[in-house]
Amino acid sequence: MTKTKKHAVGTCPLVYQCRLPLSTRTVNHLADPLRRHLKAIRSRWRILPPGKIAVIVLAVLRHDQRLADMAGGNNVSESTVRRWRDELITLLAAQAPRLDRALKKIANQGKEVVLIDGTLIATQRRTGKADWRNYSANITITACTSSP
User: Fold this and answer.
1) If 0-12 CB within 10 Å is exposed, 13-18 middle and 19+ buried, where does residue 63 land?
2) Long-range contact list for 23-26, CB < 8 A, 24+ apart?
3) Which residues does residue 117 pair with via DSSP β-bridges, in sequence order?
4) Are the beta carbons of 1 and 24 closer than 8 angstroms?
5) Average pLDDT, the chain
């Protein structure tokens, strides 16, 4: 058996579709900060509109679609999809409240009990000499008044 890196003659790239149930509100929640960012940095154009970029990034984040698969199906490079993903994560992270501010807001509302759910979800990346697992930092804050 011989190995070759040549493409088969007469083939075309295969593009598949998957169902991604998203509301318009969800797509706009991600596309609006991107539109504002593009206007702020005076970006002249992107190869795809912000709404389409938002859908691609949601498919990558929500369904763990491979970057190369999403890139090939949308006629962009894998590095472009990676850049869009990183850019939108940064834009969303900038909107999230800091923990100290969230706790101060809760205290100002007269809440007395704060439950912090620090759910740890194993991730795929490994670092360090001991090759320990990394965990995500998903934190949910729930505030309530104490009962008398």
Assistant:
1) exposed
2) 26/58
3) 140
4) no
5) 75
Secondary structure (3-state) at 48: coil
Helix (H, G, I), strand (E, B) or coil at 132: strand
Return the top range by mean pLDDT from 24-33, 90-99, 136-145.
Answer: 24-33
Global pTM reads 0.60
Sorted by sequence, the CB contacts under 8 Å of residue 125 that are 6+ apart come out as 134
148 or 69, greater pLDDT: 69
- The per-residue pLDDT for range 78-107, each reduced to its tens digit, is 999 999 999 998 998 888 878 788 778 878
| Helix intervals (H) in the chain | 24-40, 50-63, 67-73, 78-95, 99-108
pLDDT in the model for residue 11: 56
The span from the CA of 79 to the CA of 67, in Å, is: 8
The whole-angstrom separation of Cα 127 and Cα 132 is: 7
111 CB-contact burial (10 Å; exposed 0-12 / middle 13-18 / buried 19+): middle
DSSP 146: P
